[in-house]
Specification:
Layout (H helix, E strand, L loop, with lengths): L7 E4 L6 E5 L13 H4 L4 E5 L17 H15 L4 E6 L2 H11 L4 E7 L25 H8 L11 H8 L3 H17 L2 H5 L6 E6 L20 E5 L6 H4 L1 H15 L1
Parallel strand pairs: 2-3, 2-4, 4-5, 5-6, 6-7
Antiparallel strand pairs: 1-3
Helix pairs in contact: 2-3, 4-5
């Protein structure tokens, strides 16, 4: 692509309905590894590494803005020949999913958001980043400290995710997070979703330590939205509890993909 290559992975039958999975900040498409086998029997599952994450290049122009991410994803889907997709976003991946729907409503049939914070009012402020850009890359211990709130208490962060974050630049991590904050500060997500008129499913782990779990109810302002809390799951149910996450996604996808 003109602003840097995006890594794309495809699973499942190519003639099946498309599920597009978009990961959150400081991770990659590998965060979906445990969930994909539960989805790909009946769906053409497409995963994209966002710019500067996983195996995708950093944007040449340094632009991590969420609307630009939505545009890039739309271009990638066009190149794959995809005409319609149910788009699933985890965490800040839900902002890119929403931006894609804003930019290309023709492509997006429905949206599923997993532990995507609806507004900055719902954010649980963390401590300072445990990373020193002058001492990059960070250690395993620093990465696990940073990532720990992304999961329920006691969950062991997979080593492959630790390794992937270490492979990112400090610029990519901070710029992506700043872009998400800017997108939410401009307009809360429910306010963006209402005029789109797309079917919406919201899944939220009730032990989330990054976004106030009760804030999932904010999405009920979107007409027809379904909101589901996953008891015992933290911010990343796609890794913490793939079977229950898939059990919620699949009936929604059967209707709307």
């Amino acid at each position: 692509m003109e602003h840097g290559d995006l890594y794309v992975r495809q699973d499942g039958p190519r003639d099946a309905p498309v599920l597009l999975l978009i990961h959150g900040s400081a991770t990659s498409s590998r965060s979906w590894d445990a969930l994909v086998p539960l989805l790909s029997a009946l769906h053409h599952v497409i995963r994209i590494d966002m710019p500067g994450h996983g195996r995708s290049a950093e944007p040449v122009d340094g632009d991590y803005a969420i609307p630009e991410q939505g545009r890039r994803i739309g271009t990638a889907l066009d190149r794959l020949g995809v005409e319609h997709a149910l788009v699933v976003g985890h965490s800040s991946g839900g902002y890119a999913a929403t931006a894609l729907a804003e930019h290309r409503p023709d492509l997006v049939t429905a949206l599923a958001l997993i532990n995507t914070g609806p507004s900055m009012d719902a954010f649980i402020a963390p401590g300072p980043l445990p990373f020193d850009p002058a001492r990059w890359p960070p250690t395993d211990e620093q990465i696990r400290e940073f990532a720990s709130t992304g999961f329920r208490v006691g969950y062991h962060v997979p080593q492959e995710l630790v390794d992937e974050l270490r492979g990112m630049t400090f610029r990519a991590i901070t710029a992506a997070m700043q872009a998400s904050t800017a997108y939410l500060n401009q307009r809360a997500l429910p306010d963006r979703l209402i005029p789109l008129g797309k079917p919406l499913q919201v899944i939220f782990g009730d032990q989330d330590r990054r976004w106030r779990p009760s804030s999932a109810a904010d999405y009920r302002a979107v007409p027809g939205a379904t909101v589901e809390l996953l008891p015992g799951s933290g911010h990343t149910p796609i890794l913490e509890d793939p079977p229950r996450t898939a059990a919620l996604l699949l009936p929604f996808a059967e209707i709307h993909a």
